[in-house]
């Protein structure tokens, strides 16, 4: 039996398009495809990764939790500013702390490296899954579409949990799809086992989202009366019970230890209810209207937003979702996540990151289905129109970026001006040539241009934004004015970026009475607060304040003052 026939015998497709192409089965990645993926990932996520500081709201918070884990030696219960941090499970903090341990402290590189690595792994996962489901050409284009989308690049470049969660959920869904196609219990269990990192990174939502997608897909199989759907749904349900038990075996030892060590503060049912049910049904943060993602998705998919109409039209006309289970699974993956996060009250743009592999593969299938290999771009209106729209938007964006840099980032103005001149000239010179190349070359050109622009923006422009977005300069001024043993507090605020770049924990004082209590312990104290709250602190005539530092950190005007008793 040949390699190809063995592969087909071992992988019954059951309506899924598991394609064996020239060059061998799907799991043999061509060297040029691997190099494209690795080089793209390097410039998108790793290039000059530590060239700019940690920015609020999430990066310095998570870095500080990892730092306190490293300094205290307590790897069980996360802490932030000396207090138990119940907002997130510890997996991401474990990774950052482990990477930072040889260096002695958390820095920009170690804080971002897990997210960047998860981005690369998700690219490889999308490629292999797309190769099996659709074919290598669709897989490579889909991987590049996903990796160069604005939201994916933005999240992969910062030290947050969401990319790790997206990787875990996507791995579970890919394994579920393979298990359903092969009718393989082992693959079901492997898929559920891959959800253990999701549970340890984000909590119950890491389990709820992928399981919901799985149930919706199986429900579609039953509604369409696919052969063996009821029998397979029973097999899936039994595997679900066993899989969740497997996840519990992995998570429970840590959860139990955290609960006991924190004396019930961490891991209690009330905390779980607040962090999960509270965010879903009555969110105390990030409340958005139900149509939030309708206007949010277009910018997330830039520059590929211009190809959405072509994708929708092709899927509507040529995708037989009833017969092609693979395409239907991708559609369910995409739609179920959109509906799920639309229905919950708390919404953020990065919450829907797990749908990017499905959305990108659907788009790549549609673009390849229209046969971009033949003809010239000028003769193919379905490709020419979105490419022209993208070129026009780019021509407008370059001078706008130059103006913004002149107003806010004067130190990179000449760089921005040179980039705008080169970009506009390049667009003009290349436009006519692009009209005579195959549409596929234009699509790959969009990906390459996005990679280079992203590398330039994050590698060279982002560091110039530190003076507006980073707390480092403000904290440096404060540290230069106080002694190591001086008492430093927050007043009616808490800023994780200040906490991180000060390199010490700072108690929050909520009233002048608490300020007086602090003065009872020390003759002089230093207080960090927003400038607009300074009058509240000055209200007590028993206080004398000397301002030692002031700085604009993001949208907040912060000051540090010396407080001591009058007389």
From TrEMBL:
Domain named ArnT-like N-terminal: residues: 34-257
Coiled coil: none
Membrane-crossing segments per the record: 29-47, 116-135, 155-178, 185-201, 207-224, 236-255, 290-315, 327-345, 351-368, 383-406, 412-430, 442-462
Compartments where found: Cell membrane
Keywords, comma-separated and alphabetical: Cell membrane, Glycosyltransferase, Membrane, Transferase, Transmembrane, Transmembrane helix
Claim: tRNA-binding is one of the keywords in the record: no
Pfam families per UniProt: PMT
Molecular-function GO terms, alphabetical: mannosyltransferase activity; pentosyltransferase activity
Record's bilayer topology term: Multi-pass membrane protein
GO terms classed as biological process: lipopolysaccharide biosynthetic process; protein O-linked glycosylation; response to iron(III) ion
Main location per the UniProt record: membrane
Highest taxon above the source species: Bacteria
Entry's Gene Ontology cellular component terms: plasma membrane
PANTHER family, A to Z: MANNOSYLTRANSFERASE YKCB-RELATED, UNDECAPRENYL PHOSPHATE-ALPHA-4-AMINO-4-DEOXY-L-ARABINOSE ARABINOSYL TRANSFERASE
The protein's name: Glycosyltransferase family 39 protein
Taxonomic source organism: Abyssobacteria bacterium (strain SURF_5)
């Amino acid at each position: 039996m040949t390699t190809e026939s063995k592969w087909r015998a071992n992988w019954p497709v059951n309506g899924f398009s598991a394609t064996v192409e020239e060059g061998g089965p799907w799991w043999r990645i061509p060297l040029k495809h691997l190099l494209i993926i690795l080089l793209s990932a390097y410039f998108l996520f790793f290039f000059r990764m530590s060239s700019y500081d940690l920015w609020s709201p999430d990066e310095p918070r998570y870095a500080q939790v990892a730092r306190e884990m490293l300094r205290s030696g307590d790897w069980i219960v996360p802490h932030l500013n000396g207090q138990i941090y119940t907002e997130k499970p510890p997996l991401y903090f474990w990774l950052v702390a482990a990477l930072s341990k040889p260096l002695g402290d958390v820095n920009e590189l170690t804080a971002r490296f897990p997210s960047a690595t998860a981005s690369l792994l998700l690219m490889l996962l999308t490629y292999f899954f797309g190769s099996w489901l659709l074919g290598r050409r669709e897989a490579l284009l889909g991987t590049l579409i996903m990796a160069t989308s604005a939201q994916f690049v933005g999240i992969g470049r910062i030290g947050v949990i969401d990319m790790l969660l997206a990787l875990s959920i996507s791995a579970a869904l890919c394994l579920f799809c393979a298990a359903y196609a092969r009718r393989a219990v082992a693959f079901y269990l492997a898929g559920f086992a891959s959800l253990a990192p999701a549970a340890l990174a984000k909590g119950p939502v890491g389990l709820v989202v992928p399981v919901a997608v799985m149930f919706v897909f199986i429900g579609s199989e039953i509604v369409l009366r696919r052969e063996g759907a009821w029998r397979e749904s029973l097999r899936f349900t039994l595997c679900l019970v066993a899989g969740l038990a497997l996840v519990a075996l992995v998570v429970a030892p840590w959860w139990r230890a955290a609960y006991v060590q924190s004396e019930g503060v961490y891991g209690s049912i009330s905390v779980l209810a607040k962090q999960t049910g509270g965010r879903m049904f009555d969110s105390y943060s990030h409340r958005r209207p139900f149509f939030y993602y309708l206007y949010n998705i277009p910018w997330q998919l830039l520059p590929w937003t211009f190809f959405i109409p072509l994708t929708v039209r092709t899927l509507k006309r040529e995708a037989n979702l009833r017969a092609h289970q693979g395409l239907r699974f991708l559609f369910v993956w995409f739609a179920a996540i959109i509906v799920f996060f639309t229905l919950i009250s708390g919404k953020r743009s990065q919450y829907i990151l797990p749908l990017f592999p499905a959305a990108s593969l659907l788009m790549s299938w549609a673009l390849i289905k229209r046969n971009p290999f033949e003809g010239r771009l000028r003769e193919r209106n379905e490709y020419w129109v979105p490419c022209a729209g993208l070129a026009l938007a780019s021509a407008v964006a370059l001078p706008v970026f130059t103006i913004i840099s002149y107003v806010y980032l004067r130190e990179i103005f000449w760089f921005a001006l040179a980039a705008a001149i080169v970009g506009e000239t390049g667009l003009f010179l290349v436009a006519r040539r692009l009209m005579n190349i195959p549409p596929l070359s234009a699509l790959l050109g969009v990906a390459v241009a996005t990679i280079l622009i992203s590398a330039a923006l994050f590698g060279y422009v982002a560091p110039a934004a530190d003076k507006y977005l980073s707390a480092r300069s403000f904290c440096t001024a404060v540290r230069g004015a106080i002694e190591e043993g001086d008492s430093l507090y927050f007043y009616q605020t808490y800023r994780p970026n200040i906490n991180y770049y000060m390199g010490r924990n700072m108690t929050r004082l909520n009233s002048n009475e608490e300020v007086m209590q602090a003065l009872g312990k020390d003759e002089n104290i230093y207080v960090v607060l927003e400038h607009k709250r300074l009058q509240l602190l000055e209200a007590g005539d028993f206080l004398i304040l000397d301002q030692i530092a002031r700085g604009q950190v993001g949208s907040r005007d912060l000051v540090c003052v010396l407080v001591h008793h009058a007389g």
